[in-house]
C-alpha cells in the first residue's frame, strides 16, 4: 500500500478536528470553499511520498573522480563536473554529477587527478610565437660560437640573398663572454665571415634588440654614420664602427628592410605563413593547458586577419588582442570600428590598447630613475613621449578602451602611474572600473608600489621573468636597488592590487606550470631563491593565471573559474600542484586540455 493511503486514518482524524471547528451549516459558498482548501492543504501536508525529481539536462561531457579546484570562493573544491556543449552546467559530488549522465555522454575518469580552469596567458605575442617556431631558435644555446654554427648551417641551405632569421639569444645566459665585445655582445665579424651574401637578423630574447651582419645592415641602409633614431641606439665600438647590435627603436630600421623582403613574396605565400603561425602557436599553447591568450599588441591589419580566421573557425585558443603599432591619428579613426567585447563562446576580443614606454633591462633599455650600475652613463630609454601617452590615455577613456602600458624600469612605472592618475582624475568616476594595466611592472620604486592598489592599476607580471633574469639583475641595478624595487609581487598584492600572470612568450616558454612554480618558489636556475619573501601562495598564483587574468580582460563572468554557466575551458594536470612538494611542481604536465567542452589536447602516454 502506498504512503498516501497508509496515512489515511491520520488524515481523517485531522479533517474531523478541522470540521468540528467550523460553526454552522456548510451552506455558505465561501465557507464551503474555505473548508475544501483546508482539506486539500492538509492532505498535501500529510502526503509522505517523495517530491518528483526535476528533469536534468543531459551532459555532453562529465569529468569525475578527481580533485576539481574551482577557483570559485563559494564552491571551493569538488569531485566532478558536467558540461553541456561549450558550457559548464553543474559542479559537485560524484553522485550529484552522475545524474547528468546520458547514453551519449563522454566521461573522463580523473582517477584522482587535479582539474583547474583553463590557463590564461596574461601577456604574450601570439603570431610572434608562431613565427619563432618557423625560424632559428637560439634560446637554448649557451655560447655565441654555437649561434654562429647554427647560422652557418642555415646559410648552407639558403639561396644567395635570402634572409636568415633567428630569435632568443641572451648574452647574460652564455657560458662565456665573447671577445672582442661591446656591452658583453660580440662584434658581427663572425657572421660576416659565414654569411657574406645573406642578411642575418637575430632577435634578442627580450624582443628589444637585434644582432645583424653587414649584409643586413647594408640592406637597411645602416652604416657607421647613421644617426641613432629617437628611442634607440646603434651600438658602436670605441672607434665608431657599427657593431651589429641595435637596441629598441633602432632595430626597426632592420625590421623594415626584412619586412619589405617578405612583402615581395606572393600574397598566397604570405597568407600561408601567417596561417601556419596561428596553428603553431595554438598547438603549443594547448599542449601547455593555455585556453585563452592575451596578445600584447597587434596592428589593425593583423586583427583583420585574425577576424577572418575566427570566422572560419580556425582560432585554436581564445584571443584577447590589444591594439598596438598604430599612430595616434590611426587610433583616433580606428578605435570605434575595432571595439569588440566578449560574447558567448567568443574566440576574439578587442577592447584594449597597448603602448610601450621603455625597453628591457637586459638590453639596458628599461627607463630607470637612476643610472645603470654597469653602464653608468645611461638610465635607459624612453620610447614614447609622455605627451603621446597622455593623448592615448584620453583616446582610451573617450572610446571606452582599456589602456595597457609596457613599463619595466622604475621611472617608466612612475611616469605611467602619473599619466593614469591624471587621466582618472580628469575623467571622474571609479578608476578601479577601468582596469588599466601596466605590462611587466618589474622594477618599481617602493613609493610607487601602493599606488597600484589605490588606483586599481593591474600589474601584468610574468612569474618566469623573475627567476630567469634574477641571476644578473644585480649587475644592472646593484644589490640594494634590486632588493628594493625588483619583482615585488607580495607587496603589490598586499596593496590590494590585482596580478595577472603570464610568460611573455616567445620571450619565455609558454609553460604556465613553470611560471606558476617561479611565482610561488622564486627559485632561479642557479639553485638560489630570488628574494623569496616576495613569493605569493599557490592559491594566489593559480588565481593569477585564471580568474584574475579573466578579470583583467573584463571576462570574469564567462571564464576563469569552474562555475556553472561559464565556458567549459578546463585543464587536467598529472599532479596536484597545490599540494605536492614544491620541487615537484616543474615535473607536472598537462594530461587534457578542454576548450568550449571539446577535448583539444590529450597527452599520448598517461
Report on this structure:
The protein has 606 residues and is an alpha/beta fold. Among the domains are: 3-46; 53-118 and 567-606, Urease, subunit C, domain 1; 126-263, Diaminopimelate Epimerase, Chain A, domain 1 (Roll), CATH 3.10.310. It is 36% helix and 20% strand. It has 21 helices and 24 strands. The strands form 4 sheets. Strands 1, 2, 3, 4, 5, 22, 23 and 24 form an 8-stranded mixed sheet that branches. A hairpin with a 2-residue loop joins strand 23 and strand 24. The longest helix is centred in the middle third of the chain and has 21 residues, at 267-287.
User: What is the CATH architecture annotation of the domain at 126-263?
Assistant: Roll
Radius of gyration: 30 Å
Oligomer: single chain
Based on DSSP secondary structure assignment, what is the total number of beta strands? 24
Structural class: alpha/beta
Q: Kindly estimate the percentage of residues that lie in beta strands according to DSSP.
A: 15-25%
Shape: globular
What's the level 1 CATH class of the domain at 126-263?
Alpha Beta
